[in-house]
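Hello everyone,

My group is preparing for a crystallization screen and wants a predicted model to guide construct design. The compound we'll soak is fe (ii) ion. Before spending weeks at the bench, it would help to have a computed complex in hand. I've included the protein sequence and the ligand's SMILES below. Output in structure-token form would be ideal because that's what our pipeline reads.
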Amino acid sequence: STAKYLKGAFFWHLDGTTDDVPVKATTLTARQVAMTGGGTDFAGTYAAYESLPEKDRERYESLRVVHSFEAAQRLVDPDPDERELAVRRSRPTHEVSLVWRRRDGRRSLVIGATADHVVGMDPDDSRALLDELLDWTTQERFRHTHDWQVGDLVVWDNTGILHRALPYDENSERLLHRTTVVGDEAFA
Ligand SMILES: [Fe+2]
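Reply:
Good plan to model first. Here are the tokens for the complex, ready for your pipeline.
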């Protein structure tokens, strides 16, 4: 169901990692908010990359990562039935550089829930590295939490900021409207 797939929003992610050109910006407007919880967390992938030790930056330079819907849904439900697994696997996967070389010369990390594995790396090492990089990026110093008030409008750079929804009471009437700005820079 759609509700099931939306649960993926509770895990750190960038929108559109399986597209060649991801969404440039996402805006959320709060129409109704949860009584408790339901904030949105952000973490900067430019600052996280730039703060890595130089030897790590060099090591990551040539790594490629396969992103998939399946990887993101594995976090929601790690033990799907065969039919569900087939649905997940029917979605396209996308291989991109771990380090996105931006047109303006800056670099940022492409990680998050859809990061399935590092190409050519032992699966355990790959998982450990992707988890480690996510932990690094979502440290307090690169992170911001927005607690919603009705009428708030938040706009963020989806290409350089991971986001996730924080848990809230399922009975609350939380309603956020989302608008996206078409991207103009391909992963590279
Ligand atoms: Fe999202």
